[in-house]
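Lecture notes, part 5. Sequence design as translation. It can be helpful to think of inverse folding as translation between two languages: the language of shapes and the language of residues. The source text, in structure tokens, appears below.
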């Protein structure tokens, strides 16, 4: 531990001189944050504002030396979220300046994402900005990536309300502030108050439980109001399933939507690229129409290019699950999840979309881990599980682990620790 008596303005000046020559000594930035925390308690608001301005000036100088300094960018974020009077418009202008100097610097794009998250300018302005940058350089990957993030909106994809718990799944991770301001559960036309609990214990999560004392039984009216980012309101009505279980599903689509000129350009280039690029183009043009062809191409690539077989298997899993998800959300009204395609899963993308399921059959896959919050019966038969460490706490009645490569001692201990029926 550093002595508080050593953390003063003199040390602030000394570390500043060193960082001006080498901005990537993260220990010195840590010391500066400790000093600034102490000064916050003793200085007047005006003096503190000047100190923070000087710190921003230092980071700006350091970024001129190394525009890709993680430490300097992080320090700048810390200062702006710590001080009482951040000027976010000035920061946005700084991003514009830096991106004129280096339009591909992903550090600046990442920082811009942080700034926009704080000042929340109209998304159209950010979208137009990326258009301008892409006109300058169509191959600017960082701009494309940022543009995709701007277009991606958060949606409530599915929820379930039962006598035991109410779960809510989102397309992207959200926090409690988002939930309390955007989501409301209504039972018999009365809003339900409760406590939001993350399923993983993280500040941001895609899956949340609302703990409340309202009685859930057959014959009640259940709905959820969700306020979208454009200010509009969606009402998702819960449909009753067995034993007072209500599930509300939103409309989902994983199809990327491109303008007609872009689609025409993709189609015209199909015969000009390698098998992987062609497969990606086909998926972008119409994922449903070309699904079988794309999966066949990826299976061929797994054989041809063994060094990247894992990457191709990951794409197969992701796109196959997306294909089944769209069908399940439209046609399947049960509380079960079963893989309906031949390709083996190596992971579970979009897992939150199946959070309402009570009976999940994931047997004969290539999985190494799993987590679902509402299960009663889970089959992980004939997978590739090698350990049961960090296995999620689930309120199961039955778990099938036959055909996995598990140590006998671990199996016995796991069986002692769990109250549900386990099949080995």
């Amino acid at each position: 531990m550093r002595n508080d008596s050593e953390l003063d303005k003199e040390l602030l000046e000394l570390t500043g001189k060193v960082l001006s020559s080498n901005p990537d000594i993260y220990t010195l930035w840590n010391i500066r944050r400790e000093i600034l925390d102490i000064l916050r308690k003793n200085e007047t608001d005006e003096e503190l504002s000047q100190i923070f301005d000087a710190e921003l000036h230092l980071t700006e100088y350091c970024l001129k030396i190394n525009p890709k300094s993680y430490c300097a960018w992080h320090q700048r974020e810390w200062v702006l979220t710590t001080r009482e009077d951040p000027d976010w418009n000035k920061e946005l202008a700084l991003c514009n300046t830096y991106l004129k100097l280096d339009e591909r610097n992903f550090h600046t794009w990442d920082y811009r994402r942080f700034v926009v998250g704080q000042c929340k300018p109209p998304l159209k302005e950010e979208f137009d900005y990326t258009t301008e940058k892409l006109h300058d350089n169509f191959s600017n990957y960082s701009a494309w990536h940022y543009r995709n993030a701007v277009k991606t909106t958060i949606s409530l994809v599915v929820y379930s309300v039962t006598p035991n718990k109410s779960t809510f799944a989102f397309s992207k991770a959200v926090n409690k502030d988002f939930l309390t301001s955007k989501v409301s559960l209504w039972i018999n036309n009365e809003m339900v108050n409760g406590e939001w609990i993350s399923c993983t214990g993280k500040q941001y999560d895609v899956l949340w439980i609302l703990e409340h004392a309202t009685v859930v039984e057959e014959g009640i009216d259940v709905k959820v109001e969700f306020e979208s980012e454009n200010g509009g309101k969606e009402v998702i009505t819960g449909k009753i399933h067995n034993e007072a279980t209500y599930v509300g599903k939103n409309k989902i689509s994983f199809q990327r939507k491109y303008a007609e000129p872009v689609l025409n350009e993709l189609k015209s280039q199909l015969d000009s690229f390698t098998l992987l690029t062609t497969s990606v183009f086909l998926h972008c043009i119409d994922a449903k129409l070309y699904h079988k062809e794309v999966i066949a191409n990826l299976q061929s690539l797994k054989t041809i290019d063994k060094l990247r077989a894992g990457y191709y298997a990951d794409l197969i899993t992701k796109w196959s699950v997306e294909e089944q998800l769209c069908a399940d959300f439209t046609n399947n009204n049960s509380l079960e999840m079963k893989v309906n395609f031949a390709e083996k899963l190596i992971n579970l993308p979009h897992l939150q979309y199946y959070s309402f399921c009570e009976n999940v059959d994931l047997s004969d896959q290539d999985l190494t881990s799993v987590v679902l919050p509402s299960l009663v019966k889970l089959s992980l038969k004939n997978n590739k599980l090698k350990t049961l460490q960090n296995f999620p706490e689930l309120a199961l009645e039955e778990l099938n682990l036959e055909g996995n490569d598990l140590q006998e001692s671990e199996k016995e201990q796991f069986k002692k620790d769990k109250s549900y029926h386990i099949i080995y």
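The translated text above is only one of many valid answers, since several sequences can fold into similar shapes. The chain has a mean pLDDT of 85.
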